[in-house]
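User: Sequence in, structure out. Go.
Assistant: Echoing your sequence, followed by the structure tokens.
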Amino acid sequence: MKEQQILGDYRILKQIGHGSLGKVLLAEHRFIKKTYVLKVLPEELSSDRGFVQRFEEEVNGIATLEHPHIVKIHNVSFAEGAYFLVSDCIVDSIGETTNLAQYMSGRKERLREEELLRLLSQIASALDYAHSKEKLCHLSLKLNNILVGKGKPGIEVYLSDFGLSKVIGAGAVISRCFKAMAEALGVEFSMDEKYTPTPVETHKLSKLNLSFLQAYAFLAPEQKRLEDVGIAADIYAFGVLTYYLITGLFPEGVMDISSHIPIEYKCDWNRLISQCMSPSPEKRPQMLTPILEVLSKGSVSSPETFTTPPLKAVVPPDPEPAPLPKPPIPVEAKEKVEERVLEPVLMQVTEPVSAEPTAPMSITPSKDEKYERALTSMLHREPVVTQYQPEQREKRTVEPIQSEMGVIQAGHFMRGSNDGNRDETPQHQIYLDSYAIDVHAVTNEQFSRFLEHMGCEKDQNYNDLIRLKDSRINRITGKLSIESGYAKHPVVGVTWYGAVGYASWVGKRLPTEAEWEIAARGGQENAPYPTGDSIEKNQANFFSADTTAAKSYAPNAYGLYDLIGNVYEWCQDWYGYNYYETSAQEPDKPKGPIQGVYRVLRGGCWKSLREDMRCSHRHRNNPGTVNGTYGFRCASDAS
């Protein structure tokens, strides 16, 4: 790619990879000057409406993953006709981006067993965490998706591309692998397949084979059959990874790992790999960390006394079936009857058993007869139906602190810009009904009342309302408090869901993007800034160190404060890169696209540059994203 190429808010530094999911770019944010990794999804997927909808549904869960060994996804963006994910840039001790395949090829000796255990424990911990969090699966675990970082002594690894294969689809990933290999070999797929007359260079072919085999070898049997898959596919890939790290080979056919295990290794790696790579998904372990803990205890024993304890968290073999009584009664029914109805039978031997005949004893019902009688009694008993009562989340009676609102009368207005970014064009006229909008952004003291009402930081759909560590609100032993001096500052760290939830609680809504922009202009339709042709730091809070209290700067002509600067403000609309072109054709009360990946943010923030203070400047992010610069204000219809 050309140097200095721009993709959205990012300046491309270089391309660092190209996998089955698309290009991988190293980029720097143009404003905050921080380095990120961008994964640009293939163009054919970005233009597929079905993919966009699936992408929107899945990426919310992926973005919530917070684990020390999972690469954090910060943002999902759309620019130049392509979707791309923005994630942390993981570099090794010399500042290079290195995956586990590159790291292993550069080693001159095999991993020591303690190194192997440390590396696998980090990956196991990350997988177990994600699997327990709404059953999120990686589904593309392989060497290239494990990044080597720097930090503590030893090997530090991080899982990348978590869950993206599910978004793309297993069939598409496999097809793309075949296509990439075919293109490199010079094979043209058509009605009449053709082979290139020029032989492929040996060194190129060996690298290509390694890349293709890696992608294919880590797929579980059910993935190769394109069946529905779950966490068991990740467990299988973990077994393949363990096999490779020990032997340097990918498993094929009947595996004889025992001959490949170094003599100094003391753990039962053969057993771990066999169970993880069981052909039946239901027979694979459900969790990995407990197994590695067992292995780590075994590895410190001496060879003479070492015995491998039984592995935990593995589905045991089916027990031998017990003989059925006559008449036959289901085993399950017997267990329930015995557990709920029968009293335990205690037998005590006080006399030695004699072989001589004894006097006949009174005949009592056999145990099977007791089962039968109890079962018959239970089957003829009137059923008792308990009505299901869903758990009710306690909501406290807390009164909101209402904000003063300014009213903007119905009329025709100009929005957009012909001189700004591509997503701001063209400038065009729209019509809006009368509406009211808060004179200032929602403050910490107002939002903390809402959190008291909710009783937690989640809504009824378990979406985050706010992340307290990114805000000025604290919860200590269940009690909320606001940092000293910040009660009147706008709340930050709020998600779009939190903004919508608060607005609904106070009987309002979020402003549409059109309403927000017209309010910000303050009646000046052609000026780029609400203050005219330019804006100074004494007119708005930007390029500074922190938020300021509401109403710290002069209001605009509509009597509204801080629409520009201080905090980005969530709007109701989905973001559409080319939406202003549509809005110019449908100018009556525009409300944004009917669907999208992320929601609109407007207004710039306390650390933005002057350029972001323009009334027409547009920003966007995933609705579940939290940031120390994101806030909001409310609006309502003016009847």
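User: And one key feature?
Assistant: DSSP finds 17 helices and 20 strands in the chain.
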